[in-house]
Specification:
Elements lengths: L8 E5 L5 E5 L10 H7 L4 E5 L16 H16 L4 E6 L1 H12 L4 E7 L10 H20 L3 H11 L2 H8 L3 H8 L14 E6 L7 H10 L3 E6 L6 H4 L2 H14 L1
Parallel strand pairs: 2-3, 2-4, 4-5, 5-6, 6-7
Antiparallel strand pairs: 1-3
Helix pairs in contact: 1-10, 2-3, 4-5, 6-7
Length: 253
């Protein structure tokens, strides 16, 4: 573990209880999971992390992929906190990292909880693919003709996603481009721990289809759909479902 990249971490709950580690989504911070960690306080020792480059954690010097994030976090949890087994709860980007850890380190994660996780591509029709290619081509052409930083930023606002735009603002564009294009489909079968997959029915960033693909690829996985929640409200209004999923597995262990 690189000392200079020590992640910001907050611990909530009884330190003698089983460990639960929380990984937030892209552009978010550990604050998203405070309500869940507080609900678990009597039965778990929760570790809430700011991934390197987010919140109060310094960014990596290089363009990391999710495997780099996974190995760094594993080393940190082992060296700084002595964790040799834990539950991992990941939202969106944090789900990507959690799946990497579970696949590469069998036995380290006792229960994987994926909340609106990214990590596998959506299915797109031929017409959608063609529209996407045309849009990408137009974006690249107009970028090459931009005469000023202001013009370039205006094009990004026109063509880019909210996360793509935000990635420039926080100095993480290189890492965003690398991680958002990763496809973990081929490694899902290497995840052997029990996995709870929780998605919102109104989530258009990581729709239910993505959760269904993840569940189909992981041998011991179940899917729960919260019909009235979107990509972010599932963390707030859906916190009880997340906490319940964790408590049930802790009680059974």
């Amino acid at each position: 573990m690189t000392t200079a990249l020590k992640p910001n971490l907050v611990q909530i709950g009884d330190s003698t209880k089983p460990a639960v580690v929380f990984g937030h989504g892209w552009g978010r911070t550990y604050n998203d999971f405070i309500p869940v960690a507080e609900a678990l306080a009597p039965v778990a020792s929760s570790y809430l992390i700011d991934f390197p480059g987010f919140g109060d954690s310094p960014r990596p010097d290089e363009a990391w992929g999710t495997e780099d994030y996974a190995e760094h976090i594993v080393s940190y949890l082992r060296e700084a906190h002595g964790l040799t087994e834990f539950t991992w709860v990941g939202h969106s980007f944090g789900g990507r990292v959690g799946m990497r850890i579970a696949a590469a380190h069998p036995g380290l994660i006792r229960h994987l909880v994926l909340v609106a996780s990214a990590g596998v591509p959506r299915t797109r029709t031929l017409s959608q693919q063609l529209r996407g290619k045309r849009r990408s081509w137009a974006f690249k052409l107009r970028k090459s003709m931009a005469k000023s930083p202001e013009a370039l930023e205006a094009l990004e606002r026109q063509y880019g996603s909210a996360d793509y735009i935000h990635s420039r603002e926080i100095g993480m564009r290189d890492i965003f481009v690398r991680t958002v294009n990763e496809d973990q489909t081929d490694t899902l079968g290497q995840i052997t721990c029990p996995t709870s997959v929780i998605y919102g029915g109104l989530d258009f960033e990581t729709p239910i289809e993505v959760g269904e693909k993840i569940v189909a690829g992981i041998p011991d996985a179940t899917l729960t759909i919260c019909p009235h929640y979107d990509h972010i409200s599932i963390l707030d209004r859906g916190r009880h479902q997340i906490a319940l999923s964790i408590k049930e597995k802790l009680a059974a262990s």
